[in-house]
Amino acid sequence: MGQVTRTTSDTQSHKPLHIADPADAPWWRDAVIYQIYPRSWADSDGDGIGDLPGITARLPYLRDLGVDAIWLSPFYVSPMHDAGYDVADYRNIDPLFGSLGDSDELIATAHELGLKVIVDLVPNHSSSDHEWFKEALAAGPGSTERGRYIFREGKGEHGEEPPNNWPSVFGGDGWTRVVEADGTPGEWYLHIFDTTQPDYDWTNPDVGDEFASILEFWCNRGVDGFRVDVAHGLVKEEGLPDWDGPLQMLDATDTSAEAALPPTEDESARIHETGHGPRPPMWDQEGVHEIYRRWRSLLDEQPSPQRILCAEAWVKPESQLARYVRSDEMHQAFNFDFLDTHWDAERLCEVITTSFRENDAVGAPTTWVLSNHDVVRHASRLGLDQSLPRPNGIAADQAQPDADLGLRRARAATMLMLGLPGSAYLYQGEELGLPESTDMPHESRQDPTFHRTEGKHIGRDGCRVPIPWVRDAPSLGFGPGDATWLPQPDSYGAYAVDQQAGVAGSTLELYRSMLAARRADRLGLGSASWHELSSGDVVAFVNASADGSRETLVVVNLGAEPVSLPEGATVTHWSGDLTADGLVPTDIAVWATV
Ligand code: GLC
Ligand code: MG
Predict the structure, then answer these.
(1) Contact 85 CB / ligand 1 (< 6 Å)
(2) Per-residue pLDDT tens over the stretch 25-56
(3) Is position 301 annotated as part of the catalytic site?
(4) What domains lie within the chain, and their CATH numbers?
(5) 575 Cα–ligand 1 center, Å
(6) What number of CA atoms fall less than 13 Å from residue 496's CA on the CB side?
(7) In angstroms, what is the span from residue 161 Cα to ligand 1's centroid?
């Protein structure tokens, strides 16, 4: 905030925001990556839970959609207390999803179709069902086995209080006390997420060696990269000091009283010096970078094509996040600042400017993302009151999104995103304009967030509902039977793939045409500069190829008045109808040649 982003001189001189990449840039610099949440994409056996054979069978749909790669949320052996982000065996597939043979087949089929495969790596914590954790419990205090996790004595006369005051991101305490082999209450272990997700101690060399070996295991099975879960959390500040500030992960909302307090004098000085507030002792510690340097060199030693790392790191400001994508660390980091931006032209321009500046400074491609399995779907989010923070789920008795408005804006927002140079992440179902499920009965909810906060935070189930493929089929074509692990709202039938495929103007066809043009014109490798139309409620920039042979004007109108395009501009793509005079109406985006 605070910096001038679209000065007159910038727009008039077309000062580049970002310089084009060469045409032979590596694949990941401009890749469009489609996130599959395996539980919810396609079910082959009718148990109501999506699985790997289901995914493999439907991969041609993604080739036809026009994406470059898929990222699969975890499919490993897991007791599923956090939908698979609690891994019990990193080298095997959960029987719910299939077998190692099924993952081999999935990877081979994807490659035949020209799709790269990125898998999820969960290195901050294991499941409490992991062999190492079971051994740690059995071996007792002071053992080598306990040293792989963060076990500590409790405070208080009998160790009855947790070692520090850290909460869990999902609500409740960040520590759980164990019962020792002799039946007495014993040490506590740290879990930044659910009780069933004990945090590793990354200062223990066993942990680093184990993850290097896991990376190699999946490289040998042919994967093209890793999305790294909670990449900013692996290393904790020495001494595990108490922390009274907000945790700020997953939630944009922080309603704690502390968050409302103005910074102390010391904090203000630090913010001034470093550009960010006090750093929570569980996040973004300097030690994480050494880990990613090791992984980068491990991946660089693999045969081509290049395998990549993408950080899920909820780190602010962007200059701090960019440190994860320095040339010897990860390749990409999710741009959550972009996802968190309200429908506000000024703010969008600021985020776009900052994203290019900070990523270009370290030579990394900028990524763009609007939806994933942790946030309210953007077709619903953008239909909510834009003056309120992004909610963690929406319940039936809360303010409901305006579905038409949300979809109209979502289509425009996606046209903005796919017109920007860099790499973009899509979340399954957004290509259908799928809204969040907001009428799910609480009994159906599975997200630990809902249960650990006793329903205060609704949680993430609403964006994880099984995908509608066929309107008039059991489970809307998700599987062969009626079963779905979360209920599908009645409204979903109208969004089914078979209702949109081949239908002019449908959201699915809009995505297909944008992705085809983005690929043909190499928009992801282009340059970007603000266009003079960009001011007030209008976001407008030109994306040009390195050799100057192509210029695409991207215009998004977030204001009340229709916007006229420059003379000679020919509209090639539009997120919704233009006015009879060819003006761009409210909440509509276009791509045009100039
Ligand atoms: C990441 C995942 C989220 C998971 C959490 C704990 O934020 O995206 O789904 O619950 O990490 O692993
Ligand atoms: Mg199944």
Answers:
(1) yes
(2) 999 999 999 999 999 999 999 999 999 999 99
(3) yes
(4) 1-19+527-594 (2.60.40.1180), 27-124+204-510 (3.20.20.80), 131-190 (3.90.400.10)
(5) 32
(6) 20
(7) 27
